[in-house]
Design a protein that fits this description.
The chain has six helices and no strands. It has about 150 residues and is mainly alpha-helical. InterPro entries: DoxX. It is a multi-pass membrane protein.
Length: about 150
């Protein structure tokens, strides 16, 4: 739920700033990129937080090698993608790469939902909700790339 709240709040706050006179923030696509950047910064940082890291490692399907390294790699890629969304020259590529990353990470999310792996004591997100969230984030990344 925190990623959706972060995405929504950051996007709407950026748009509100545009309505209040910040000329650079009158473009919905830029506001969406800001919201996505905030969300991916949050989700990327979680990969390194001691409270969440062990649970994230458990999310990785057993057939994949070195789960801890994969969690680190995906966290770095999410944070790098978030930064890329904020640079006009890299925003389109960053948005498309983040969409591809979400597709690549879906097996871990699916596996975690099927195995009911909780994250920091919270109940596991049901597969239907997890899939809908992932589809929404992918669609928004594609929209941010246009």
């Amino acid at each position: 739920m925190a990623p959706i709240i972060t995405l929504t709040a950051a996007t709407l706050l950026a748009r509100l700033a545009g309505l209040l006179g910040a000329d650079a923030l009158t473009d919905w696509q830029l506001c969406l990129r800001i919201g996505l950047a905030a969300m991916f910064t949050l989700t990327g940082a979680v990969h390194f937080h001691p409270k969440f890291r062990a649970d994230m490692i458990r999310m990785i399907p057993a057939r994949l090698p070195t789960p801890a390294h994969l969690v680190t790699l995906t966290g770095v890629l999410e944070i790098a993608g978030a930064a890329g969304l904020l640079v006009p020259a890299t925003a389109t590529a960053a948005a498309l790469c983040l969409a591809a990353l979400l597709v690549a990470m879906y097996p871990a999310n699916y596996s975690a939902a099927k195995r009911a792996v909780p994250l920091a004591g919270s109940p596991a997100t049901p597969i239907g909700i997890r899939t809908a969230e992932q589809a929404l984030f992918i669609a928004l990344c594609v929209l941010a790339a246009l």
